Amino acid sequence: MRILITGSGAKEYTLAKKMKECENVDLVFVAPGSDAISEFANCVDIDAGDIDDLLEFARANEINMTIACSEKSILNGIADRFNEAGLMVFAPSVEAARVCLSKSAAKKFMYKTKIPTPKFGVFDRENMAIEYARKSAMPLVVKYDNHMHGVNAVVCDSFNEAKRAIEQAFGDFQKKIVIEDYIDGKEFSYYIITDGFNALPLNSVVPYKYSLNGDGGAINSGVGAYAPFYMLDNSLERRIFKDVIYPALDELAKNGNSYVGILGVDMILGRDGEINVLEFNSFLQEPDAQCVLNLLDENIFYLMRSAIIGTLVDLYPDVKTIPQYAASVVLNAGNYPVSLRGGAVIYGLEELDDEIDVAQFKTIGLSDGTYKTIGGRTLVLTAVGATLSSAVNKVYENVELVKFEGMRYRTDIGNHLGLE
Question: What pTM value is reported for the model?
Answer without folding.
Answer: 0.95
